[in-house]
Amino acid sequence: MKPALASLYQAIELRQPIPPLLIGERMNANGSKRFRERLLADDWAGCVEIGVEQEKRGAQVLDVCVAYAGRDEKRDMLELVRRLAGTVKVPLMIDSTTPDVIEAALKIYPGRCIVNSINLEDGGKYLRRICALLKKYGAAAVALTINERGMAMTAADKIATAKNICDIACGEFGLRQQDLLFDALTFTIGAGDETLRDSALQTLEGIRGIKAALPGVGCVLGLSNISFGLASASRKILNSVFLHEAVQAGLDAAIVDAGNILPLATLDTADREICLDLLHDRRREADKKPLTIFIEHFQKKAGEVTTKPTNAEEEKKPAETALTDRIVAGSKEGLEDLLEILRGRMPPVEIINRILIPAMRHVGELFGRGELLLPFVLQSAEAMKRAVSLLEPHMPVAQEGHATKVLLATVQGDVHDIGKNLVDIILTNNGYKVFNLGIKVPAEVIIEKARALKPQIIGLSGLLVKSALVMKESMRQYREAELDAPILLGGAALTRKFVAQDCAPDYDQPVVYCADAFAGLQAVRDFEAGKLHSTTFDETAAAPFKPGLKNVEISRDNPVPQPPFLGLRHIREIPVTEVFPYVNTEALFRGRWGYRRAKLPAEDYAKILAEKVQPLYAKLQQESIAEGLLQPQAAYGWFRCFSRGEELVVRDESREYIFGFPRQAESPHLCIADFFKTEAEGGDIAGFFVVTIGAKLGERSQALFASDQYHDYLMLHGFGVEVTDALAEYWHAVMRRELGIGKSDPATKAGFVTQDYQGSRYGFGYPACPDMGAHIPVFALLQPDALGITLTENMQMVPEFTTSAIVAHHPQAKYFAV
User: Which of 93, 146, 247, 388 has the most CB atoms at less than 10 Å from its CB?
Assistant: First the structure.
């Protein structure tokens, strides 16, 4: 299992598919004046705001350092960690040299931290004390290459120090090498110190050497040290170029202000070369040092960060170049004229193969590097689709070509198709022939279609845990049917381990785990190159740390509130305007719609949000009301119950229904049943609900997909998902008010995200209660079929935009993962 950190909300792998892991540096009392001022004023909300800002700017982990003369570091750390744990979704790096502070933070954090840092400065006493804490709490660590002589300056000394630290941490304490990030240390090359002229080179060589000598370990750098003392504008550029060089050397993570890292492709060539001269100590002029040339060069630019020159009145480009630019920009403007010109020079198939497909490949590369957001990828796909449709009338049937054929399907019982459809879009617009069988496709139909259509590859998708089991159970059927196509598997419930151990052994051809649509595209390319192999999983790796609440004793003396009624009720009309305020726009914009900042400059990202994203959201709200696309309804009820071990016994008149809930395998071993009183304690009250926004929005989104309006399809579908979740949040608030525990509900949207209210709702099919089979007793209790809501054979609810939950009123009930 790949090493990872975890917050209460998500896990983040230490080794990113596209490095580096970005660790936000602005919550440091010694490195950020703005943070220090807020800390000294006990402005905790302001401190947290800096963390939220860093997360929005692309930080995947937050470094938290509160050590400051005259302050109580332990008190400050605990205060801030508690607040951050419920507010930011990214994990934390506990930055302290005080063991008591580190342990206190590890005790209360509901996830897996990384500690910054360990070293050999005192010969090993401090290192051993911290390693004991790392082992006890399952934390990862940053290891500084510092020994008894001080900071390691040469590559050889850095490597030797890293080996000694590893011997103690892993040899004596049993820590995993993959949980260590070694900091090869970087020193400023901007101060003119002759002894540090080659320090960047020593750092880069140190990274290469550490990775070679200690397989499995990672490397991290405090990036901005390299440019300390230089003008701020030139620092951005030097830091960005150095980051690229370090990643090429093997860097896995960087402690940076993510918003100040510039995409390498946007930098002027001359700027990059001058930075490289300084980093590599290359002297072009015998009488001038690289640092002197660097300073003079950027002084001439008057502090401006330059990008590749653009010219609004640029010369007319060749048609081939212009068409490529249209596809990359996602623009359909002028396609007809360009294609007409090109058809006079080459056959339509050549236009597709020589220009359009390479253009889409470049789009995928830009997305992979974080330089293009998903919505713009879909706009490019629409432009590609339009171009192909304009060429098709001029293509003889015989010219269809021999593109690799891919059969796609969402497996039996699963109605979710957004992931599969994204794969369809990406593959189709990269020149592949896709047969999309739709949703709820039984294995027998997949076999029948595979025999008839003869695809070279089969791709299966499913969102649910039950869908993953269907995939596993179907593998033998595909083998017995003697299918000879590799199978790609994707979906939220799948893991690399599950595919490797539970699916691949039962099929004779490669079975490959694909984390997203572009992984599917890469798998198809690997197939064409003859290098597609089944996904494997390293059994020697330790099991991952699971996020969850720590050291929680569930109180048993909380009062049981009285519900306004017992039994069920159906609410057939819920005002949409009451639901919209509960929409998590952060999740919608960044998660569902893919408008992540990534490597975009802050100003550009803010402009996209203001000019594109927020107006689109307002437009969809207005249209959904005007056209009746949203029809919110709810089936809900209150029922007497009592807990019995890991079970909850729910009574409805004379009948009993048993709900079984899994218990965490690790401390504190939580189970949903823990939040309800036992029969001996007098029993309890449980709430249940099923809410839906109806079928119309789903029908509209499918129509958009069918008409090749991919961007609009993704936007509308994501809107529907988040409005459904908002409806669940709204209805949970209604139920809290009915119990009389809603008076303390938060005043802000962020408060609902962090559950700053009494009680919790747990959705069936989600981490705390993953068994979709619980929908059978839920439907018996609430009878949502009267609202047009049905169950598939895999316990999936239809319409698609429907969700369910059990409601617990216990003050300590919060989200956790099993």
Answer: 93
Q: Record the pTM.
A: 0.50
Element (H, E) at 725: helix 710-739
Q: What is the pLDDT of residues 503-560, one digit of tens each?
A: 999 999 999 999 877 788 889 999 998 889 999 875 434 333 333 444 457 888 899 9
Distance CA 414, CA 667 (A): 33
What is the pLDDT at residue 375?
Answer: 61
Amino acid symbol at 705: F
> At 289, which amino acid appears?
K
3-state DSSP assignment of residue 455: coil
| Interval 79-92 mean pLDDT | 92
User: What is d(CA 444, CA 192) in angstroms, rounded to the nearest whole number?
Assistant: 72
Of 288, 277, 276, 291, residue with least CA distance to 193: 291
**Cis previous bond, 799, omega within 30:** yes
Note the pLDDT of residue 326: 87
Q: What is the DSSP letter of 747?
A: S
The model's confidence at residue 397, banded by pLDDT at 50, 70 and 90, is low
- Between residues 468 and 175, which one has the greater pLDDT? 175
Q: What letter would DSSP give residue 617?
A: H
Which amino acid does the sequence have at 463?
L
Question: How far apart, in Å, are the Cα atoms of 520 and each of 101, 103, 499, 533?
Answer: 45, 42, 14, 13
Residue 599 has what pLDDT? 67
Which residue, among 578, 614, 581, has the nearest Cα to 595 in the 3D structure? 614
Please provide the distance, in angstroms rounded to a whole number, between the alpha carbons at the two ends of the chain: 17
Q: How far apart are CA 558 and CA 573, in angstroms?
A: 34
Tell me the angle at which helices 44-56 and 33-40 cross, rounded to the nearest 10 degrees.
150
**Tokens representing residue 520 in the block:** 């599917």
Contact indicator for 429, 517 with CB cutoff of 8 Å: no
Condensed to tens digits (0 to 9), the pLDDT of residues 640-684 reads 999 999 999 999 987 889 999 988 877 678 899 999 999 999 999
Contacts 24+ apart (CB under 8 A), 469-475: 470/411, 470/412, 470/413, 470/414, 470/443, 470/794, 471/411, 471/503, 472/498, 472/502, 472/503, 472/506, 474/411, 474/443, 474/446, 475/503, 475/506, 475/507, 475/511
Identify the structural domains of the chain with CATH numbers, from first to last: 319-397 (1.10.1240.10), 402-528 (3.40.50.280), 567-808 (3.10.196.10)
Contact 138, 110 (CB under 8 A): no
pLDDT in tens, 688-741: 999 999 999 999 998 988 887 878 888 999 999 999 999 999 999 999 999 999
CA within 13 Å, CB half, 189 = 29
Q: Closest Cα to residue 737, out of 600, 542, 563?
A: 563
Alpha-carbon span 261 to 243, nearest angstrom: 9
Rounded distance between C-alpha atoms, residue 605 and residue 612, angstroms: 10
Distances in Å between the alpha carbon of 326 and those of 355, 388, 712? 11, 13, 19
**Cα separation, 367 vs 453, whole angstroms:** 31
- Give the total residue count for the chain: 818
Q: What angle do CA 325, 328, 334 make, to 5 degrees?
A: 50
DSSP string, 58-103: T-SEEEEB---TTS-HHHHHHHHHHHHHHH-SS-EEEE-S-HHHHH
Alpha-carbon span 716 to 698, nearest angstrom: 9
CA distances in angstroms from 779 to 36, 282, 571, 731, 789, listed in the order given: 54, 72, 15, 17, 9
Amino acid identity for residue 73 in this structure: E
Pairing of the two strands 655-660 and 647-652: antiparallel
